[in-house]
Amino acid sequence: MPTESESEEFKVECKHTLNCKNGAFRSVAWNVDGNYCLTSASDKSVMLWNPHKGKLLQSYVGHGSEALVARSSGDNGSIASGGADRTVILWDVATAAPLKRWREHAGKINGVCFNELSSVVISASADATGAAWDTRSKSKSAIITFGKFGDSATSAVVDEAEVLFGCLDGKVWRFDLRNGKQITDTIGAPVVDAEFSSDSQCVLVSTMDNCIRLFDKVDGKLLAEYVGHVAKDFHVRAMTNFDDSLIVGGSENGKLLFWRTVSSNVVLTLDHPEVSLVNGCAHPKENKFLSIARNVLRLWGSPEDDPDSEENIE
What we know:
- By secondary structure, this protein is an all-beta fold.
- 0% of the residues lie in helices and 50% in strands.
């Protein structure tokens, strides 16, 4: 992890505000190069945006109920989404057509991600399992099932041959597919999100006890705790920024918070007019950030950066 100077000032400001007219946002994520972002919403849609220009590019409609999560493939050609309808959908980005629907889960889909080659989609479900789906096969069955966990699986991420699940049973489940190992770390509070750090050396865990914890991936040692936000009743997520110098996370009281990774100090709090659940995500290559609160998506960036357009999208 990086070293840092506490005297170094960190500032961001809102560059764009974008609105979803028909429902509340449920998730937001950058694509792999940070040129676009994806949102999922309560109106059953997945939306592709260019947040730098403040433009909605495409909507993907096909879930039977709320779309809860969406992620882009590494080649930017496909989108995977999961919904409250217990379905994982693979979309073609260009045509907005659903390419595959996988329906084996018995609970809502809380997390999805692609492997590095975009050949497999991983899902995390409220049915206390995870699953791996072959994007190139005609089969509608999972090629791997993970679990059964002790409670709802809340997140799924992949780093090379490692698959990481957060779970409401208070554990983080890591599967090393290359070596055939399963590693389980007990956190002690319901886990709503587990993410690898940008350098892949640590695991950042968000829990429903007003705390975010950073662990060493190899030995499981607790490295730091981050507090100051509210996370008791909803899935409040956090992640490291592109160089692991910052932790960015939401809160249930309308705030987006930034902590210094090493010192655990809060260096910036962004208040949202929607005093409600806020979640955010960090750009993969620079200090730009997205936040969602109710039906509003915001792009945050350095005061020195000029946005491509000042227009808001409604």
